[in-house]
Design a protein that fits this description.
The complex is a heterodimer of chains A (438) and B (331). Chain A has 18 helices and no strands. In chain A, helix 5 (90-113) runs antiparallel to helix 7 and helix 11 runs antiparallel to helix 12. Chain A has helices at 4-11, 18-44, 59-70, 72-83, 90-113, 123-126, 133-153, 157-166, 172-181, 189-222, 234-260, 269-295, 297-300, 303-313, 318-337, 344-370, 391-414, 420-431. By secondary structure, chain A is mainly alpha-helical. Chain B has a domain at 91-316: 2-Layer Sandwich (Alpha-Beta Plaits). Chain B has helices at residues 2-38, 104-112, 149-153, 179-183, 198-204, 237-241, 247-251, 276-282, and strands spanning 48-52, 58-62, 90-95, 123-127, 136-140, 159-161, 167-169, 190-191, 230-231, 257-261, 266-268, 273-275, 298-301. In chain B, strand 10 and strand 11 (266-268) form a beta hairpin. The longest helix of chain B is centred in the first third of the chain and has 37 residues, at 2-38. Chain B is extended, with a radius of gyration of 28 Å. Classes of the chains: A mainly alpha (438), B alpha+beta (331). The interface between A and B is large, with 46 and 49 residues.
Amino acid sequence: MKNYDTLLKDLTPRKFGKRGTIWTVFLLLIIIAGLIAYIDQVIKGQVVTNMRDYALWGIYISNFVFFVATSFVGSVTVAILRLTNNSWRTPLVRIAEIITLAAIVMAGVTIMIDMGRPDRLLNLFIHARLQSPITWDVIIVPTSIALSFLLLYFPLLPDLAILKKHFKKTKPTLSKWYGKLALNWEGSKAQKAIQEKSIKIIAIMIIPVGIMLQTIDAWLFSTTYRIGWDSTNMGAYFISGAFLAGVGALITVVYIIRKVRRLENYITDYHFDKMGKFLGLAALTYLYFNINEYLLPIFTAPVEEDIHLNALVSGEYAGLFWFSQIVGLLLPLLIVLFNKGRKPGPMFIAGIMVVIGSWWKRYIIVTPTLLHPFLPIEGVPESWHHYFPSLHEWLITAATLAMALLMITLFVRYLPVIPIQRTADERALLKTDKNSES
Amino acid sequence: MEDNNKNSRRKFLDKGLKLGLVTAIGGLGLSKIATKLNAKNDEHSGEKMELMTTDGKIVQVDSSEVMEVTHSEDYDTKYNVREGFPNRKFVMVIDLAKCKNALKCVSVCNKHHYVTGENAWIKVHKMQESKDTAPYWMPRTCMHCDKPACVTVCPVDATFKRRDGLVLIDNERCIGCRFCMAACPYSIRVFNWSEPGQEITLNMDHDTSMEKPMHASPDYAGLPSVKGTVDKCDFCPHAIKDNILPHCVTACPNGVFYFGDKYEDTVTNGEETLRLKKLLKDKAGYRLLEELGTAPSVYYLPPVDRLVDFEDGMENYTEFQSVEKPGEKTE
């Protein structure tokens, strides 16, 4: 058994190594490129994108949906593990909550990028109309950001106090910051009681909020008459998709952090096995809804819907459609069904496939529908009949993804990714008896 | 302890309610007194005045009762951009049997609304229900639905529905989220992806019939167009205001478009004026995508007994263009 000092040594934040620095600079460069592209978009208008009157939403929106979906992992998935007292969650929750916060913040940013008049952002509050799903989004996204932040922050308090003590001599300024953020945490019984209660309340609150967030996101589409969107299946479909995307992102990030920070002793094969089963559950659920969404209409689809489905299954979008179905859903499911598949290596591959597949899946949900309107597309240039993102859109989207990754990187740099206090407590529990409080 | 608490809260509520009641009564009393004071004299003077009521009757009133009031603003008769013309309900009837794809409606609309983008507000679609049925031309304006999907989803009330049936856009408020465009099942909305660049068109053929073309109001379809906002067919309220028919109606050489008022039950294409109900009944009028429940204000008459062969319109058919750019004249 390890003693407390090695625990501290392993888990306290460390300076970037060479790889870390290169990675951060790389992310910063992408972000700068994206910022330049965005400024250009503001000046020239969204003519710099490849969106036009028919393909009126593009990857900004699908990327937004992707971020919202990814944010599901920390909110609902982990909150449920917390409430059900699944002890295997310990080394994973913080990473999940970091992913959630980064994703939901970037979702808020991304949706603003899509606005034709970002200068009129305040109109959303001044002239808000409650029946518009966008107003629901304006309410739910900040709520989610606040709750995700608190769910990350409150469990951090004991660790921040530990870090304050740890860095007292080596890095006084950093220690001071940790001290300020620790809110005078001493670990007294009263403090612990308050903290535990708060975490519990937030963990309970974040479940309905997370479900609402996903559902409202789905309703942005299903409140229109569009073929492929106008479906009562959408809310549940989006929630199950978010479940999958979130767990996929969690596995990917956990694997990388474990590798970079050499946390093999803390995040073991056992944890990957558990996450693998979780991913399997998510994939099966999503598969069920995909069958509902794409297979069932074969029997009763009206002509327009038939055209839409044909374009997906065997037409213009067949490549992306099958990519997102096979790589993003079926193959990962197949991998995690086997014991050997739930080892860290294969799981990482499955996670990456899920993440990339999920991103394109959102593209497949947004774009083809817009290009299959009820009335024929006529009287507009040939290029308006199709959509593929422009360089500006790619740069800006890449920048939003880089910002999310940078946020995760910085959190990992400055915060203990595995709860120190809790791990110490749990290890002590293993050694001694089970009479003390967790 | 708890009981006590409850009691004191009850007391507080009780007091609050009473205080509120007293204030309300006091306010009422004060306003009564104020009106009394406003009248010049409380006593009857005995002098009578003859006045005419709004419906033309002569009545006698004690002169002390007569007092000056500020002229009442009659909101029912006054025009307000967001409210619309009172007691009107504008409708359009499009007779598909007459359309020969002359495209005059499109070009006149583009001209008068200074459409500078690639996507015209009016389109003439080449329609064919199935391979076995005859093709026909279908002009398509904004449907000005009674249950407009676009208005429902707008988060800032930039697009709105007026009492006279018009659905318009306040492009000084629009945030450019394009949700309305996604919501519209008829895909009629167009977006200003870049600076509209209307100066060129405005300078080239400045139209004097439209007095204030640069008037920024939803009335002029939000002229001038604004970058990053949505535009669409507006049923020409600027023309209606001066009792002029919308431009597409007057420009059509085949009399395809009828415009009118549902309450008056009349529509006209400039040449003939018809009873709306009878016309719709006789010629089996229908509305586009009726099953969606958007309740459009535009009715279609089916393309029966066509005046000319469908092929005659094909010479004007341009699949990939609906707006002529300044400088390039194809006519």
